[in-house]
Amino acid sequence: MNKTMSNADEAIRDIQDGATLMLGGFGLCGIPEASIAALVRKGVKNLTCISNNAGVDDFGLGLLLKTRQIKKMISSYVGENAEFERQLLQGELEVDLVPQGTLATRIQMAGMGIPAFFTPAGVGTEIAEGKEIREFNGKQYLMELALSADFALIKAWKGDRYGNLVFRKTTRNFSTSMARAGKITIAEVEQLVEPGELDPDQIHVPGIYVHRIFQADSYEKRIERRTVQLTK
To answer: Cα dihedral sign for 190, 192, 197, 203?
Structure first.
């Protein structure tokens, strides 16, 4: 099946107001830049966005925060975005902060068809409020629900028109799990190749999980926090 789209705007064409989205990436590494830009152009609002972080003020998910298109963020880290902080403190944005390991596992469980699991992370904190707690082998664990989304938006290095994906190094981060947890998975790639050009042993996400794929024109690949050392 040819799953190729001509561009990001065509790929996200049916994302409507109120949709729940998963967006791959860690910091600014491996984020779906083209899809985010298309969402800004489309102007969809009241989005619930599931992502490890909220980007920075003028890049990544920060662009959707700036245009007030996000209603709720489900994330594990949000410390690099001043606009996020302002909207949170002003009560303009709903936020569900989730421990990073719990967030990753909730997404993984959804992709595996497992509805819930027990973890010790968060026991005795605000995170545990309203959640079931059980004791196993003398230790308390709280129940966390699997986390799915209407759409998963991810970015890979290479892909073919069947949707098979290959990532480079740490860019796979949350994306490989999100691809399995989204009802509709949209992948943008730096290089779109013909079937047979990818080594089957190197494929990180099989095409069965990907519904649409497109090649973006260019990527900024911005560095979130640059650290330098002066030497004499």
So the answer is: positive
0.90 exceeded by the pTM?
A: yes
- CATH number reported for the structural domain that contains residue 64 in this entry: 3.40.1080.10
Full domain range(s) for residue 151: 8-117+147-215
Q: How far apart are CA 207 and CA 196, in angstroms?
A: 13
137, part of any domain = no
229 part of a folded domain: no
Tokens of 212: 């649409």
Task: Encode the chain (232 residues) as per-residue pLDDT tens digits.
Answer: 789 999 999 999 999 999 999 999 998 899 999 999 999 999 999 999 999 988 888 899 999 999 999 999 999 987 778 898 899 899 999 999 999 999 999 999 999 999 999 999 999 999 999 999 999 999 999 999 999 999 999 999 999 999 999 999 989 999 999 999 999 999 999 999 999 999 999 999 999 999 999 999 888 777 777 777 777 7
